[in-house]
Amino acid sequence: MRSLSQLALQTADEIPGFGDDPWWLVLLKSVAIFVLLLLLTLFNIVYERKAVARMQHRVGPNRTGPWGTLQSLADGMKLILKETITPRNVDRVVYILAPVIAAVPAFMIFAVIPLGPEVSIFGVRTPLQLTDTPVAVLLVLAIASVGVYGIVLGGWSSGSTYPLLGGIRSTAQVISYEIAMGLSWVAVFLFAGSMSTSQIVDAQERIWYAVVLLPSFAVYLISMVGETNRAPFDLPEAEGELVAGFMTEYSSVKYMMFFLAEYINMVNVSAIAVTLFLGGWRAPWPISAIGDGYFNTGWWPLLWFLAKVILLVFVYIWLRGTLPRIRYDQFMRFGWKVLIPVSLGWILVVAAMRLAFNEGLERRDILIWGGAFVAVMLLVSLLVPERKPDLRGAAPPAEADLTAGGHPVPPMPGQESVAGRVQAAEPSAAGEERLNA
Amino acid sequence: MFAQAVEAAGHTGEAVVFWSTAPIAVLSALGLVVARKAVHGAMFVAVTMICLAILYFSLEAPFLGVVQIVVYTGAIMMLFLFVIMLIGVDVSDSRVETIRGQRVAAVLAGIGFGLLLVAVAANALVSEAAGMAAAQPEGNVAAIADRIFSRHVWVFEVTSALLITAALGAMVLTYRERLFRRPSQRELAVARFRRGGTAASPLPSPGVYARHNAVDTPALLPDGTPSELSISPVLVARGTVRPAEQEAAQIEQLEQQVVELTGEPLDESTRERP
Amino acid sequence: MSPTPYLVLASILFTIGGTGVLLRRNALVAFMSVELMLNACNLAFVAFARMHGDIDGQVAAFFVMVVAAAEVVVGLAIIVTIFRTRRSASVDDASLLKL
Amino acid sequence: MTLGEIGEQTVSTAGGVFSAAWLLIVFPLIGAAALLLGSRRLDRAYGVLGCMAPLASFVVAAALFVAMLGREPEQRAISVPLYDLFAVGDYQVGVGLLVDQLSIAFSLLITGVGSLIHVYSIGYMAHDENRQRFFGYLNLFVAAMLLLVLADDYLVLYVGWEGVGLASYLLIGFWQHKDSAAVAAKKAFVVNRVGDFGMSLAVMSMVVVFGTTAFAGVFPAAADASEGWLIAIGLLLLLGACGKSAQFPLQSWLLDAMEGPTPVSALIHAATMVTAGVYLVVRSAAIYAGAEPAQTAVVVVGTITALMGAIIGCAKDDIKKALAGSTMSQIGYMMLAAGLGPAGYAFAIFHLLTHGFFKAELFLGAGSVMHGMNDEVDMRRYGGLRTVMRTTYVTFAAGYLAIIGIPPFAGFFSKDSIIEAAFANNFVAGLGALVGAGITGFYMTRVMLMTFFGERRWAPDAHPHESPSVMTVPLWILAGLSLVGGAALLYVGGGIVQWLEPVTGEEHVELGIPVWAMTLVILAVVLVGVAVAWQIFGRQPLPVTAPAGSPVTVAARRDLYGDAVNEAVFMRPGQYLTRSLVYVDNRGVDGAVVGTASAVGQFSSRLRRWQTGFVRSYALSMLAGAAVVVIAMLLVRLP
Questions:
Q1: Is A240 inside any structural domain?
Q2: What pTM was computed for the model?
Q3: Do D425 and D509 form a contact (C-beta atoms < 8 A)?
Q4: Do D630 and B117 touch (CB under 8 A)?
């Protein structure tokens, strides 16, 4: 007897070692992942509050449980028990569906994350991973893109201005940063020669991709923060501008599910970062050398994996405690005009390197030729004369009244708009009138 | 024996998947046609597409299945939602048909055409599926990549050119020329402080009376007059501002009700007189 | 499993999409119906691919997706532009080109 | 290798320096391209750039001439094939050059005199802001003219023929801001079209009759062709020649063409282009040999024009128009001579060359006078200039003596020869030529006296002065040529008659009286003309405004009613014709067309109802169409 999802996949080509689990093991793994994620969420909330408090020279929660560790549990209980408020002009079905859509995919992503190598569970040898496919990483992308629907629909169905704005922002944000994210993965695919998570982890046995593909890793780190709507990119729920963004009209359990989704997504993208760039469940270097890789076998890797994930979560907290929120247009500009072009250029370089390796070029030769190319480009750039605008004798641009007698027309070349200059000096004439009124 | 069992299991599995997803796909497709709101329609389409993705998996095309979700559900439908939200959330279609006879003709033509197609598809002499095993010995992804980058590489390049052209076209279409230079944040800040007065601080928030979310109600100043500054000028222009006096009157009414019910006069110190 | 059910499903979806185009005045909904039709075609492609044991069907579906993406980008831009100038997203309102 | 025969000699292929003959045309072409297409910055070097091309061509022509001298007289015709233009069936056109005695003489004249005029123009056009364009046009003209005379095929010749027409048009209208110049250019263009029409018909006829337009093919075949065709072709060629050379009845444009800058008048409308007609007739000697009536027509046209031009020249107060009349007259002489057949061809060319010298000299002198007199052209405003413009006076006088035919100046030899040949051939023609010579003496003396002698009738703001040396040096050279050119051409190395003999053939006709007696008669007639002029214009002061004059004078002032005749004979009937055609077009043709169109329109406005403008209706029809396709496919598949 096989589970339904595996039935769907069974005719497709498979990753060796997967798809042979007995049904009870699949069930066991699923439940374990679910519990793990819930626990991680509880932990992360306290972790974040404590860490941010330390950064701000406070103590943080310290009443509930030993050192306040049960604070998040108490908060969760409180949220569940709170009154459910449903505003009058919401789109009821979508309003209720949205948090579910947000939360469910968040749990699904962990299905393809390898938590460890093969272990023995009740006498059955099985990898510490629910399932894997040749397109596992793309599957992650697919599931994540479904999760966004929760945010967008939640924003729309609330029937209110701020949530809608939050929803729109989130749409644009996710679409934009998904591109950079996907591009940062391409380099990994090129090196690993696979899109299966377990095989990518295997391919990092010698060296982590975070080292080899540092630019990709950097792009991924940035875009993963954008993907999860976390500070400094938490624009869909920017408190200062949109109250609470798409969550403004939500309360009680539904609010909690959004909250849950956000924290699980944080863990998800961190886990992906660990899998794709930080060697997955492999022990970091000095430890991995001990005992001929003893710490890379058995249940040990689970420890390394969780440690790495929690480290990345700390990066999230750190960013939140350090950086102010970025302005929306700056955020979009950064994504489209910096991250994506950089990723594209870097993929070109990676592809060229891969090709060179495949063609059998020596690493030394590549370095020499690459260095020579860069040096030549630098020298050539010295030859190009620096162009300085010659301002001497240049007539000041003629001023033109753009709105004279009706429709505004754009200034001709060489003209400068009077209104534009006034605008620059007095940015908001209308606002001022409003103030004087 | 074992192979046959696997085969049979595969078939039943596929049939289960098909017969559980296909009705959902059809129903949500119908949902698109009948949905009143465009957002609902978009959601229905997204469901259909996810169903199709699952069917692709069972048709031994996992790459296409994932791409279906990423591209259609994740990008294209998201773009649709984005545009729907941009150009009017409340736009729900009126159901009155304006073209005479269009609805009847369309339904008739649709049913007729559909029956025809189904008849063709059902009666076509279709052989048993050959399966993809022979076509993708090194896996689905490798097979597709091999085909795209060898036999169809020209098509691939052309479609990439098409994509770039489309992106440029969309930018050109939606581009709005800026008549004036946009004031920078710094200039705005400088101008605000130079103007002096209360402008340096943020504008006051709208009035909140714990009765509704009330961006449309002006805040009351200590002397009881409503503050125009607390209301977005957009709302003023639309004429959807709730007058402050009315609020104040209602509050007084409430107070009186409270006094009548409880029989105790309100504590003067807690009262905010308008 | 025989490809016939898939083909029938594709036919039904295609027809529903076509009817949607005919019935709905909202340009966006009509557009989504077109996407539905494209998807139905893709399903047929993939089903045929497995029927013949040839990957070309999947490649064709892949290209259809790419072209659909390009089409959506331009189409939505046009809808947005029309909406900006005419405050309407109804396809019936764009009937001024006739004499 | 022989390529056929032209005239009485065989043609050999190019070799040595001759294979570079195409450089002759290419140099001015490059110059024109550089000046016309190049940037305005070239304007600084306009003189050098403009003069380099014709000078280079002159060097090439001189080299070719020297090389030709080194060959046997029967071996001097050299064909320089360049490339095959096109081939349609049996009809082939190759672009090639024919370098023989005739074309080399022309080339030397064009490039030599052309160079001098280019140099002169440096000074004359120094203050014109469009001088770069001017020199570009001049170079273009030189290139086209050289192509005309060097072509070895009537079709290629026609290209040059149209090219010089274009250059002439552009240069006449060079000062297009002046209405008169624009109109004159247009007139020259239109009148030339009439001539060109004849020319093109002639070329087409050749294709029909001979199957080729190459000289090497046409000339040998002409001997065997039917006389009717030859007469037709000869007359058509004559029509072309009349247009280009301003011969009766297509003479009217030349007088107006004086609106162009004076160097243009000197180069194009005196020395070179207007003689193209003469060249054409001489070159087509083989055709005229078999077409007696056509030859007679040439003589008639030449005689009439010689007299008409002379009479018109007598009445004009505009110095350039007087000289233009003279040009008409002198070209009439050439045509007359060319019409005499082999007996006159060499003399026609001889006179053409000497005329090129002294008429260029006269025009340039006139230009020099105008240059000193604020562009005043009215001779009644001149007078007494011989003291202030000595160089111009002396050189002009040389040209004057040459044109009226005083020995030993150039015109004496050439004109004498023509008149003698004319008398020997036909008494009437001879008499006309003789009378013409007398009138020439009259009007040239008039020009001379009115300009350089008598009291000063200058305009108040006129300050005549001598021109700069860049203008006077060409004047001196041309004056020298006017002095010695005739004798040199006639006697040095056997003379031009012998030189041209292989091309034109030779025929000696005996005059009834001794040659010296004829010469004396001619001289006497000329001197009578001079004396009459002296009597009228030298003895008494001239009124500044022209007197009314006799009917003959009035007629002459009006170009002998050439324009009126043109209008009555050609323009009015033409107008009636076009009007009736317009009527037919409007009512008949358009009626049918419009009727059809409106029928279609009505039909389509019915069809238009299908066009609702609703996308969804269209989509519905598309779905219906798709259904039809499915049904059709089902039906086809059914057994």
A1: yes
A2: 0.54
A3: yes
A4: yes
